[in-house]
Design a protein that fits this description.
The chain has one domain: Jelly Rolls. It has a six-stranded antiparallel β-sheet, with no helix packed on it. A three-stranded antiparallel β-sheet has the order 9-8-11, with no helix packed on it. The protein has about 130 residues and is mainly beta. Helices cover about 5% and strands about 45% of the residues. The relative contact order is 0.25. Bound molecules: manganese (II) ion. The site of manganese (II) ion has 6 residues, from strand 6 and strand 11.
């Protein structure tokens, strides 16, 4: 066994996120594994863009309050201890409420040439308000 090196906390890029979001990738794949693990911290009101994952994604909330929202209007509230699975190809976003931070672990499998995430357009303030009120 070995202690895995962990990269420094990275600010999530503005092209893919709204608001201030910080990412710690704590596991990258060792072949033949394809597992990628990260801890993502959203400040109040911050969220991902719309996106999908080629092989799906598991989110596990560790702190705060947030949401996962799909294109069909389904809203799942995230609280500490809550786990949400998004299946392959399902377009969705995740983020914090406007009143609280939200932290989740994100587990997904890479596709060989990246993490398999297809990034789409930002979640507008109108879409955010509609989903979260
Ligand atoms: Mn996702």
């Amino acid at each position: 066994m070995e202690l895995e090196p962990v990269a420094p906390t990275a600010k999530a890029p503005d092209e893919r996120f709204t608001g201030d979001v910080y990412v710690d990738i704590f596991h990258t794949p060792r072949e033949p594994s394809r597992l990628i693990g990260s801890l993502v911290r959203f400040t109040p009101g911050a969220r991902t863009n719309w996106h999908s994952h080629a092989l799906g994604q598991t989110l596990h909330c560790t702190d705060g309050e947030g949401f996962v929202v799909s294109r069909d209007g389904t809203v799942i509230r995230l609280h500490p201890g809550g786990t949400v699975w998004t299946p392959p190809g399902e377009e969705h976003w995740h983020g914090a409420t406007d009143a609280h931070l939200m932290c989740h672990y994100a587990l997904l499998e890479g596709t060989g040439d990246g993490d398999g995430t297809t990034w789409l357009e930002p979640v507008t303030d109108e879409q955010y308000q509609q989903a979260t009120t």
